[in-house]
Amino acid sequence: MKFLNIKRISLTLITLLLLFSVVGCSNKPTEKADEKKPEATTIVDREGNTIEIPKKTDKIVSISPSITQTLIHLGLADKIVAIDQYSAGLEGLPEGLPTYDILAPDVESLAALEPDILFATGMTQAESDDPFKPVRDLGIIITYIPSATSISAIKEDINFLGKMTDTSDQAKAIVDEMEKEIDAILETYITPIDQETAPTVYFEIAEAPHMYSFGTGTFLNEMIELLDAKNILADQESWVSVTEEAVIAKNPDIIFTNVGYLESPVEDVLNRKGWDVITAVQDKSVYFIDQQSSSQPNEYIVEALLQMAQAISPVEIDEEN
């Protein structure tokens, strides 16, 4: 699968904009005197704001790791001039890029970069105050992309990034490949079953004692449902805190964890006091799902979907076909 061994898409050369000459008053009329500078093209961004499409994207700032990953995949890595602290270290980025705090950026140094556009996550406005407003007030184009809650929204985000950076063809290719790989995963691993006997899943994104997971209205819940399984927290919405007692009471058949900051997250789950009564623990059906691909709402969720499918419905793959 292409997303499992990504190759950078060739960068499309951005068409140079024509410069219109400004002609002073003269008794001799010329054609240039009557020419008008074309109006800026506007678009509604993913948060509902009307913004301009930049005339060029030679300098891009990305304040979101999921956005940064897609920009790299679009072939725009060499145009990225600054990133957020969580994007640092992503494969494909130039070395030595300045990094900024998502919630408290250094406005002066950021503005000094003179970016053509700044992409920010909607989470920057989680506390109602917009830390990037001073940058926007300086005339820099800023667009906000809220964290996608569905696979459909992820596809729309990718196409939006393509439109804003003159890489629409590359964005469409990414979405098409994403859809193709999802279909292949479902065709390979999923056999329709009676929902009464569908396996139940608990997906942990923060470990005990301060456990965190999710309910409906999230792309991860949609992925579980695509795999003909049931999220034990589907009766709740969005991202939720969880108690150990609640997980034990729900008794999941399968447990996923993407807690990447533990040395052995699977062993952590298997060895928790009192969890030995859970079916998933008894059957050792506890699996680590890649933290990056399961946490970032972009095209790389197919990697997490494949890992989840292999755990839920293991099948023998004929390597010759």
Short description:
The protein is α/β, with parallel strands linked by helices and 321 residues long. The protein is built from 12 helices and 13 strands. β1 and β2 form a beta hairpin.
Strand-helix topology:
Layout lengths: L30 H4 L7 E3 L5 E3 L7 E4 L1 H9 L6 E5 L14 E2 L6 H6 L4 E5 L11 H5 L4 E4 L5 H14 L3 H22 L10 E5 L6 E4 L4 H8 L3 E2 L7 E4 L1 H7 L3 E4 L7 H6 L8 H4 L3 E3 L2 H5 L5 H12 L9
Parallel strand pairs: 3-4, 3-6, 4-5, 6-7, 8-10, 8-12, 12-13
Antiparallel strand pairs: 1-2, 9-11
Describe the protein's architecture and organization:
- The protein is of the alpha/beta class.
- It has 2 domains: 39-174, Rossmann fold, CATH 3.40.50.1980; 193-312, Rossmann fold, CATH 3.40.50.1980.
- The chain has helices spanning 31-34, 65-73, 107-112, 133-137, 151-164, 168-189, 219-226, 244-250, 265-270, 279-282, 291-295, 301-312; strands at 42-44, 50-52, 60-63, 80-84, 99-100, 117-121, 142-145, 200-204, 211-214, 230-231, 239-242, 254-257, 286-288.
- The strands form 4 sheets. The protein has a 5-stranded parallel sheet, with helices on one face. The chain has a 4-stranded parallel sheet with strand order 10-8-12-13.
- It is elongated and about 60 Å long.
Query: Biggest sheet, in brief?
Result: 5 strands, parallel
Rg, Cα atoms, Å: 24 Å
What is the general shape? Answer: elongated
Number of strands: 13
What percent strand? 5-15%
CATH superfamily of the largest domain: Nitrogenase molybdenum iron protein domain
How would you classify the quaternary structure?
single chain
CATH topology of the largest domain: Rossmann fold
Helix coverage percent: 25-40%
How large is the count of helical segments?
12
Strand arrangement in the largest pleated sheet: 5-4-3-6-7
- Provide the succession of SSEs: HEEEHEEHEHEHHEEHEEHEHHEHH
In the predicted model, the low-confidence regions spanning at least 5 consecutive residues are: 4-38
* Rounded average pLDDT: 85
Number of domains: 2
Please write the CATH class name of the largest domain: Alpha Beta
Q: At CATH's second level, what is the architecture of the largest domain?
A: 3-Layer(aba) Sandwich
Distance between the termini: 14 Å
Which structural class best describes the helix and strand composition? alpha/beta
